[in-house]
Amino acid sequence: MGRKACRPPKEGLNRGSWTAMEDDILVSYIKKHGEGKWGCLPRKAGLKRCGKSCRLRWLNYLRPGIKRGNISSDEEELIIRLHRLLGNRWSLIAGRLPGRTDNEIKNYWNTTLGKKVAKTISGPPKGGNATGAVSGAAPDESSAPPQWSPDANPVRTKALRCTASRLPVVRHHHTCAAALGADHVRAGVEQTAAAAAVVEVEVEAQAQQDYPPPPEDELSVGVDVDFDMGELGSLSPWRGDVGGGAGLGAQFDLEALMLGPGGDGDLHEFAWF
DNA sequence: AAAAAACACAACCGCCTTCAC
DNA sequence: AGTGAAGGCGGTTGTGTTTTT
What pLDDT does residue A102 have? Predict the structure, then answer.
């Protein structure tokens, strides 16, 4: 048995744009009863809307502190940078822009910024890291800072993720020690913050050259973090170790773009060189 | 001035994860 | 532990507005 159903039937619900009166009802209800329980809210507030619609309306437009429009050039720059690192993880990006919502940023990117960035990229002559892509919600790599040439850096690695509380999980398609030492790697590490934390990293790598993939579980990556948090938005140097069997041991330096002041579940992005 | 095309953005949809039972 | 509702997220669509032809 699941929890009690709270959602109202879908029939007879209003759709489309919200009226000022609906907004008023929603705002005054939430002021009185607080956020949450979206499933029950429409019935209790007397709104002919589904809970999801109420939630969206509140979070994106009615919530206090929401900034609307006029995205500044500073904000634009930050969005571009965060998108480069995080891809289409709009809620994460929005979390770094006070007063902005994921929906607004997503819309802004899809209509304006994405095209702008694409134009910038396609403008200058091709070269550098034109190959490959980070999978899924692909961050915009073409403008990523560490320039590398395919000749010198044979492997591209994508998407690292971990939490400090987890045992290391390693996934790889193809990889090699040399590549790990001289790679163009983008790593997203979610960790619970702690001084001098040792972070276990999940790796997904893709080779451009045919190196024999090491057997499963022979590659492990430990990032020995000197948890000297840099200034928000700054790059700070970190040092890490790649251990594991099959001669894969290697040391590497990395830079971390500080996206937050450091706290539980804070997100860090690493780039290997 | 009118029609067509392009743009901007609010809202919806479906999927996945979390959580209460 | 299993089940199903609620919550959250990203992708997509619909529609009003602006620009171009």
Answer: 87
